[in-house]
Design goal:
globular; six-stranded antiparallel β-sheet; four-stranded antiparallel β-sheet; 188 residues; mainly beta
Length: 188
């Protein structure tokens, strides 16, 4: 595969499959909301406008899974180089730059119900928080207990999402008793 362009308008929750043997690099050219790609229909890799993503090999097709909002999605799928152009414009840095790896962390599980549930408390030392929904239903996350299934960020059943925010993270589901797992990496 040298290069494949995907450009379609997908309805809410619509899925499309494209042939894509081997490894691929994807650049999102057009998209107004988060959506997911699944190599050979497995896993959920979140993508959004401007994001460049490398997906390592061993698959024959790529499923594109739209979220709850109809949108036009245009992708450049290639085995060549792509651009991750989220960093554009001026960058101002106050207080210096600290470069270092994660120094520790923790993990756990929580049951999310149909009322807003605290998944993980705020933590100023958080580097990254990964939230996984291995349950049978989608969950929705937000930054406070006003999150609902209508305004939260959707994590499809079986999917996961990285969160780079030090605030508290709340979740809600349409049905009670949904298993949610979390992994928190700490920077200090």
């Amino acid at each position: 595969m040298a290069e494949y362009d995907f450009d379609q308008t997908l309805a809410a929750n619509e899925q499309k499959t494209v042939p894509c043997p081997g490894s691929a690099k994807i650049q999102v050219i057009v998209g107004s909301a988060i959506f997911w790609v699944q190599p050979d229909g497995r896993g959920n890799i979140p993508l959004e406008l401007g994001l460049g993503q490398r997906i390592k090999g061993g698959f024959d097709r790529l499923r594109i899974v739209n979220g709850d909002t109809a949108q036009r999605i245009a992708l450049k799928i290639t085995d060549g180089d792509v651009t991750d152009n989220r960093l554009v414009g001026q960058v101002d840095i106050t207080g210096g730059i600290r470069i270092g790896g994660y120094t520790g962390g923790s993990f756990g599980a929580v049951t999310v119900d149909s009322t807003a549930t605290l998944i993980k408390a705020a933590n100023s030392a958080r580097g990254k928080l990964t939230i996984q929904a291995p349950s049978s239903a989608d969950i929705y996350i937000g930054l406070d207990n006003s999150v609902t299934v209508s305004n939260g960020i959707r994590i499809p059943a079986g999917g996961s999402v990285p969160v780079e925010n030090t605030a508290a993270i709340y979740g809600i589901a349409a049905t009670d008793g949904q298993d949610v797992r979390w992994w928190e990496d700490l920077t200090s």
